[in-house]
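Pasting two entries for a bug report.
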Amino acid sequence: MIERKLLEIIQEQCFKGKVILLLGARQVGKTTMLKKLVESVHVETMWLNADEADVLNEFTVANTSTRLLQLVGANTKLAVIDEAQQIPDIGNKLKLLYDTKPELQIIATGSSAFDLLNQTGEPLTGRKRTYQLYPISYEEVVADTNFLEARRTLETRLIFGSYPEVVTNPGNEKEALLEIADSYLYKDILKLDGIRKAGQLKKLLQALAFQVGSEVNFHELSKTIGNIDSMTVEKYLDLLEKTYVIYKLPALSRNMRNELKKGKKYYFYDTGIRNVLISNFANMDMRFDKGALWENYLISERIKANQYALSFPNTYFWRTHDQAEIDYIEEMDGVLHAFEFKWRDAKVRFPRSFQNAYPQQTTQLVNMDNFMEFVGTEKKG
């Protein structure tokens, strides 16, 4: 097992009087990581998987604290409830357990923030800590191997992505990735409320995959897909965000009249999933989209690095109507940190209009030579 950075964070939060919610797409390694956690804490543990029909049925009918305590076990010190979003009224049930047995450490996992966070938001106010696990990060690969090995496999990660099953099956990455895409992208997401047609979902995801790095327009997407209106496109995109398939980057707009005010871009949390959708597994030197793919990879890795460092900047892209543009911006403590992504280039010119409009800013080119610092990794080994 590749050591996950989030494991240490969650270990430190256990038995501190909070319910822990662990979110993330299916197959990113939530269960594997928590089994490692269980091995390390050495307490009586009850593991309940809501994917199993009998567990789901027991939780569904358990409406009192007495019945819930019987379900988790009288001597249990740690209760793990896997895929908890499937349990009706799970928020209030977790609250009952928490209030009745505060010494019990509860960890609930979910592959849909739409379901789990909605159900637990109000009942667990002040009672929870929420964390998100992502596909394996570049930083985790470096820690598991060394700097040179991580660099050698960088193109493989760009093309096939970083799901644990993909990373741990060298030589069979494509087969592992196709299985994940088939079992998760369509079958699971189609269970969500509001998504009814697999064909429309696939066309929407393919359109997004081809538009990575470009501004997205709901009306244009609806015309591309056909037989779907702009409001439905927006709803689908919201659900895809909440099931950890895509990530939205809004436009920064404050000072300049000709800035885009409502623009948005979408990136995939995993570049392998993006490449599955367009059926392109070509090497980087042969790709027409290497710039967009590199941009997507860096942003997804930056998200992981920030989250695991417990850093939560506001994030944007920036563009004006006369086509001046910056790929990615983070705002921390009133300062804007602007980044341009280039696969090989050594120089880039940041728009003077941006620098004049936002004097509290820094600028940086991120390319193959210096990306390690950007994704939270120092050169070593």
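Entry 2 (this is the one that rendered wrong in the viewer):
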Amino acid sequence: MHPVVQRHGASLALGYVCGRLPEAAVIAVGIMSTLSVVTLRRVQGAAGPDDPSLVAVTRALVALHDWSFLLGPGLVIGVNSLLLALLVHRGRLVPRWIATVGLISGPLVLASSTAVLFGLYDQVSAPAALGALPVTVWEMSLAVHLIVRGFRASAPAAPDTPAALVPA
């Protein structure tokens, strides 16, 4: 995706790519903590279900999972969605309504995750689900559009794009 969107904002495209890396890393940490809990459950079965040290470690790993999924798919995805939506909107690469949903949903999921971070409501709650719904619509509609139709081939490069980045 980077070669296509960089023509419409090289710095935004680089920011988007660089934002996806910590998002993936934080999600991987959450997955590893969940897998570690599964392993501890097996050990806990042999050591006894009430071993206080194993219970404490399990709770810490579950907390790590919860924090990582608040930060990765919560906060970081809001910034990444906004950057990508700006790029596809600027370049007119997808229908305007899809880009508009992205421009709205990125800040909305970021605000919702920030509210969860500050304890205004739980991560698994109706307000959090409502905050995440628009970004789900954005990502699914963008994915379906790109699979079915792809980017608009006639989209012009941004006026400030160096000639070396514009394909011949």
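Dev reply: Rendering is fixed now. As a check, the viewer should reflect this: The two ends are 18 Å apart (CA to CA).
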